[in-house]
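Example S7 (structure tokens).
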């Protein structure tokens, strides 16, 4: 299956707003379940943040997930979510390729993201796509994928 990437803009934002809210809530529940202890109160700030780029994943016309990323010196993925029935199907590498293309166009050297240490399956999936853990904190870790490394790895 090829993911259809739908970039959220001011024009189509209202068509996807409720769906995005539902996805964010589900991701929040998922993370809360993984968290063994205090979990900060969820704020729906990301989707209002002007630095946030939001892309919906669709299977033809059916939305099944989304990504939110911000571009600074690195491309930072702040949220990434697939509906359960779309996990474990090897779709993550299409998302990674999509992000690599953005980085190449904008000359951004690295993709970075944070994951809860308890979210083992996500960490395994990211590392299988070429990410490496670059720092570990008490409850979470940072994984990074240098674009140069991705391009060399593909050959
Ligand atoms: C995190 C998430 C987006 C990853 O997507 P996914 O569907 O699990 O990823 P994929 O199936 O594409 O797996 C990626 C790679 O990891 C490999 N992989 C996954 N689990 C594996 C395991 N247990 N052992 C070995 N390899 C594994 C896959 O084989 C695949 O490699 P391939 O493309 O070469 O075949 C998805 O699981 C998700 O939405 N989870 C819930 C929300 C979440 O946790 N978000 C992340 C917050 S940081």
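Recovered sequence:
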């Amino acid at each position: 299956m090829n993911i259809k990437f739908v970039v959220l803009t001011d024009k189509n934002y209202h068509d996807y707003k409720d769906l995005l809210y539902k996805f964010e809530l589900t991701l929040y529940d998922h993370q809360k379940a993984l968290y063994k202890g205090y979990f900060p109160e969820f704020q729906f700030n990301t989707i209002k943040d002007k630095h946030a780029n939001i892309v919906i994943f669709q299977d033809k016309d059916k939305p099944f997930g989304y990504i939110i990323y911000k571009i600074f010196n690195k491309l930072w993925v702040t949220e990434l979510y697939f509906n359960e029935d779309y996990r474990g199907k090897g779709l993550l590498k299409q998302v990674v390729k999509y992000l690599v293309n953005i980085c190449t166009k904008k000359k951004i050297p690295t993709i970075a993201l944070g994951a809860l240490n308890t979210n083992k399956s996500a960490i395994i999936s990211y590392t299988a796509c070429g990410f490496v853990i670059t720092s570990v904190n008490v409850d979470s870790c940072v994984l990074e994928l240098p674009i140069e490394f991705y391009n060399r790895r593909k050959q």
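Notes on this example. The chain has one domain: 4-154.
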